[in-house]
Predict the 3D structure of the following.
Amino acid sequence: MRADRSTRRREVVGAVGIGALALVLGGCTLRRAGRPFEPPPGSAVPAVWHGYERFDFTVDGRHCIIVRPERVAPGTPWVWRATFFEQRPEVEVALLARGFHVAYMEVTDLCGSPAAVAHWDAFYRQLTTAHGFAARPALTAISRGGLIAYNWAAAHPDRVACIYADVPVCDFKSWPGGKGHGPGEAAEWQRCLDAYGFDEAQALSYAGNPVDQLGPLADAGVPLLHAVGDTDHLVPFDENTGLLAQRYRELGGDIEVIVKPGVGHEPGLDDPTPVIEFIAVHAE
């Protein structure tokens, strides 16, 4: 009889211990749960974007957008769109459904210049310190967005989970400069020169384009995914993604390139699932 009582006592104690452990683990899970973005009162204009709450506000003198998910994933992951917020947002919308926030800061006119990187620094500090966003967002870029996404990432490789770039500009000499096979755009080239404070000779000798500063990203093991059209004459493959991919692989970096047959300089994929899964794996 004593043995039975002793056995039962151990079973009760064991059950209590397991229950207490479950409460502790549950508490840890709750503490790790994502925190939804909450703008300071009166600082943001609320709206609806693809069924999700959107907030427009200003940081460092620049227009910013945050779209928050209905339920935030643990760790508060986020995807940071570099340019053209409204263009082909399938990936971002799908990630909202998975609990990611979507962030945007308007620096399109600065062509990835040091000034653009400084603005992004200010935005990043606010989101990660004041709002608890994850330390390593996924970056997404369309066309000229490749300039700011890669230049910011090269400056802060420890702050980047992964990069997805669609028909990206990877060297401003190619576009808007038109110093290779592409036509370039004269007005945009002048805007680019102004953003950097360069004359043309300085721009042509500049070694700070995305294709030039891949070492920090390769050393940090940042995975890259690009999508390109095989008839893109505006942003030629061999001067942009082709050159970047070659150099990144030579440095030991991991990059995958999706080629869109018969497509020119047109962003978007008929099936964005590979991109969504790529980001979810690396940024969650």
